[in-house]
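Translate sequence into structure tokens.
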Amino acid sequence: MSQADTQTQAPPAAKLSLPTLTTMVVGSMVGAGVFSLPRRFAQETGVAGALIAWAVAGTGMLMLAFVFQTLAVRRPDLDAGVYAYAKAGFGEYLGFFSAFGYWASACVGNVTYWVLIMSTVGAIAPALGDGDTVLAVVLSSVGLWLFFALISRGVKEAAAINRIVTVAKVVPIIVFVILALFYLKPSVFADNFGGADYAGSLFNQVKGTMLATVFVFLGVEGASVYSRHAKRRADVGRATILGFLSVFAVFASVTIVSYGLMPMAEIAELRQPSMAEVLEHAVGTWGKVFVSVGLIVSVLGAYLAWTLMAAEVLYVAAKDDDMPRFLKRATPADVPVPALVMSTLLSQVFLVITLFSDDAFNFALDLTSALTLIPFLLAAAFAVKIGWGGPQGQLVIAALATIYTAFLIYAAGLKFVLVSFIIYAPATVLFVMARREQGRRLFSPREYVILAVSVAGAVLGIVALALGWISL
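Result follows.
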């Protein structure tokens, strides 16, 4: 490491307690996605399918949460969570892809927040449309860079704000569930039980909701990303489990109770945020306003948490020499500004891309989920790898988490697999830059195979887009 690099390193990071880590996990998970759940589920499934989907997703994500808890305890030497586990288990190139994919998913996920907030305001300002008009993108871009300025001030300030907004945004969600139960119509709920004609078979209904459930559970790994900030390493795993259990029942309840207020075909046609529209149908305009305000608070808090996590992943990967060295620079306030700049720029790019999407919000939501699947799969597989010879229960949990994540890749479908390749393959430029800086051979024979697969997938994806086989 050069003298200049040494001088730009941050001082020891601020240490986070168990309550703070747990709040950050909850803050990461309770975001814009939960406010969109009624419409997204109604587009895919009825009550029966929704119950099965949440059972599958809840069990699978709980297994992943246990995996992150186990890895935090068994490998306390690994920081940055998802990325570090992939690298330790399967080599530097796949570790790099894991870091980049997780980072990219956070950046695309931030786009969903701005699309949804503009769609919310669009209910009274038609020029914003569904959050995908030119004006909406311009205003969202202003928001991107204002948050960049805020986060640049330091992790401590951002974490304090996140604790406040986490409490504020949970309140309208709980109120929604209580009111929906009060106004629930048993006959409407019964009619929605089997699903509408357009939903297809029960299996297809469940499969169609999987990416949506992944999206709302993103953040379950948040404590492991911030492992270098934890006061006690054991708190990383505890915060992961506590955060997951805190939000699972809320997410499932938002979806299920909505089926008792309106026919699912009508819910499927609502504008986003659909939770606000559903509550308006039940209690009137004040319900829509109440939820809409909660959404805006939720979006701002979730955006804050995810931007921090995105920059953290790039920063730690650069410190491990898996990203170019300019990304390892941090301010005296422990803010990795170059990584923060790159995160904001990528979000800016995808904001512009939403102008060309048929359904900007759903596209960004699904792509966010799809990009995280490879990092999650590699982390779960690493837990299987180190589980041999250990407690049998941990091995079973790791195996279940791996199977669940593999099923999610299948459920994502060819479209999002190919689009993910288009994003992953060019990222290799950063890997090459890091290797050149270290004077190392660019690729090993095994890494050349991985490179060939990623490039082939990207080329196929571009051809599929150009020929109209898939669309954004």
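Note: Residues 285-319 form the longest helix (35 residues).
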